[in-house]
Amino acid sequence: MVRRLDLPRVSTVEELCAAVAERQGRPVELVPRRMRVGEPSGFVERRADVDVIHFEQETSGLHRAHIICHELAHLLCGHLAEPPDPAEEADQVELPTLDADMIRLVLGRSHYDGAAEEEAEILGAELTRGLVLAPGAGTTSQLAPALEHRKGQHV
């Protein structure tokens, strides 16, 4: 599946984001944050001029990479709706009592069906595996992120 995408060989998730951004013709921005209870560990928000991947910051490096790769897979598979038209945004109703991040979470995600989630999970895992097995990555460097504690301490 990844081979068909013809993405360049990269060793970091940031390099992968840059390659996907170039392929899609839209910038991809990474935003680490502490997710609230009940939120997914990551989600992608399509804005008019950029795709923003929000991901849990309090997890291991390997898990972070997997979350980001899963969200990149949604972009590569075309699961997101087209970005809003800036002209239409002017007509939106303002709801000052609602949290803007929560509105983006609910409205920004397309509530993918099971098939789309499965497709993103499979492609995301393949993308992650490509990063982890990049040249120069030894066994220790592959295992260390998986053994990190949520606060960055090794178990």
Describe this structure in words.
There is one protein chain. The chain has a three-stranded mixed beta sheet with strand order 1-3-2. The chain is 45% helix and 11% strand. The protein is globular. Strand 2 and strand 3 form a beta hairpin. The protein starts with a helix and ends in a 12-residue tail after the last helix. By secondary structure, it is mainly α. The model has no long low-confidence stretch (mean pLDDT 78). The protein has one domain: Arc Repressor Mutant, subunit A.
Tags for this model:
globular, 155 residues, Arc Repressor Mutant, subunit A, 7 helices, three-stranded mixed β-sheet, mainly alpha
In short:
The protein is mainly alpha-helical and 155 residues long.
Strand order of the largest sheet: 1-3-2
The averaged pLDDT comes out at 78
Number of strands: 3
CATH class, named: Mainly Alpha
What's the helix-strand series?
HHEEEHHHHH
Helix count equals 7
> Do you know the CATH architecture?
Orthogonal Bundle
- Ends distance: 35 Å
Characterize the main sheet.
Answer: 3 strands, mixed
The geometry reads as globular
In helices, the fraction of residues equals 40-55%
- The secondary structure category is mainly alpha
